[in-house]
Amino acid sequence: MAHKQYQNLIGGQWLPSVSGKTFQNINPADHSDILGTFPSSNAEDVALAVAAAKKAFATWRLVPAPKRAEILYRAGQLLAERKEQFAREMTREMGKVLAETRGDVQEAIDEAYYVAGEGRRLFGQTTPSELANKFAMSVRMPVGVVGMIAPWNFPMAIPSWKLFPALVSGNTCVIKPAEDTPLSTYNLVQTLIDAGVPAGVINIVSGFGPEAGAPLVEHPDVRAISFTGSSAVGSIIGQRASANFKPVSLEMGGKNAMIVMDDANLELALEGALWGAFGTTGQRCTATSRILLHKSIAAEFTQKLVARAAALKVGNGLEEGIEVGPQVNSDQIATSTKYVAIAEAEGAKILTGGKALTEAPYANGTFFAPTVIGSVTPSMRIAREEVFGPVVALIEFNTFEEAIEIANSIDYGLSTSLYSRDVNRAFTAMRDLEAGITYINAPTIGAEVHLPFGGVKQTGNGHREGNGAIDFYTIWKAVYFDYSDTLQRAQIDNAE
């Protein structure tokens, strides 16, 4: 059976890769379902895309920001009309259940409407000058050509976080979608084109990291890089970009802790744990991968969590009643399997799950059983390293202060959560947890587009998506207008 052939988007034209190579986009729940073939691009393709973006920047940057914003608003309307189609295709290429992929598309819709409003809010400052008859102000300027490398777990939402604020700021873009989920990015970009984004303003180069991602990072005409992915890859990108004095926004891993105190609403915390740990099959940088339990409630909570996790329905995300979809590929299955073995070797106990599901009806996909691991201590690797699968570690503690210390004891710092009815503890946790996000009485997942998104330590390098994205995609420019008709010398001692 012939599959649809997708091509790179360069300067408004759909073109095959110079390499002539392609790869298949395969449904992780059903490997016989091929969504299409995509170009396996190389440095030559990247160079063509960057040249097209550079050319388009000359005119796009001059389009008034409110007009750029109107295009994004129209894109939001079109995404809303196409939501069901795009969600179903996303479930086929990524695996997460339909309710979640509808949410992924909805997040792109929300981002479009939110960023459209920023088209009239790209504010600078006016300020008094220290000299007479002189006007001083600052304005935001676009960066230029921006390279974007997107992950597979939110294949429309995260590209929208990158593309929309970059576009409203007047930049042009070259985006490399994740090789596991290129179609959702194609659907997003096609919608932007249909909404009126001119040729060359957005360019897509699909392919793999070493062949397509690395040349994008290193191209001299790419003025900034936005990357979401693993901390290991992000470290390499950060080093390569900084060698050329290139700003880079890194959004990377997490090992997120949910603290359940003795005064928590245990049923609420249980629901949060299930959603936080097993939503998106645990394949979120914000996934609840550690649950810290006060010893007085640990036994009861563990028993209920294990029972509920074991009862979760795993399967094809397009089917009714399915709660947990597949992992995205066999490499992710191997990682989950590896960490379960490491946990057992270090003395932890597998309370449910712990293995790939390979029998019918799972034989033609990449499925892993929802897994709860008990008897975990804070020093174990399962308590410190990101798994990115449906695997959660349970750690017991005695005091609130000990829980905060355990939560902060890792190399990551993305999202944290506290379940407690004590308002003093809540505010202390908000202050003391080392993370870019803290939830009170909610799990570690569920970010909203109009708040800053990002982390600390090995999770990120200080930049934020969401309402912090405009700061990354613009450069401050100071402007002085002297109307004195005399030479006035600032920073020269004119004091009398």
Describe, in plain words, how this protein is organized in 3D.
The chain has 496 residues and is α/β, with parallel strands linked by helices. It folds into two domains: 8-252 and 460-478, Aldehyde Dehydrogenase, Chain A, domain 1, CATH 3.40.605.10; 256-440, Aldehyde Dehydrogenase, Chain A, domain 2. The chain has 14 helices and 23 strands. It has a seven-stranded mixed beta sheet with strand order 14-17-18-13-12-20-21, sandwiched between helices. A hairpin with a 5-residue loop joins strand 5 (125-128) and strand 6 (134-142). Helix 3 (83-94) packs across helix 4 (98-118), helix 4 runs parallel beside helix 5 (157-168) and helix 9 (266-278) crosses helix 10 (295-311). The protein is globular, with a radius of gyration of 24 Å.
- Give the spatial strand order of the biggest sheet: 14-17-18-13-12-20-21
Q: Fraction of residues in helices?
A: 25-40%
Q: In whole angstroms, how far apart are the ends?
A: 87 Å
Strand content range: 15-25%
Which second-level CATH architecture of the largest domain applies?
A: 3-Layer(aba) Sandwich
Keywords:
single chain; 496 residues; alpha/beta; Aldehyde Dehydrogenase, Chain A, domain 1; Aldehyde Dehydrogenase, Chain A, domain 2; 2 domains; seven-stranded mixed sheet; five-stranded parallel sheet; 22% strand
Structure described in brief:
With 496 residues, this protein is of the alpha/beta class. It is built from 14 helices and 23 strands.
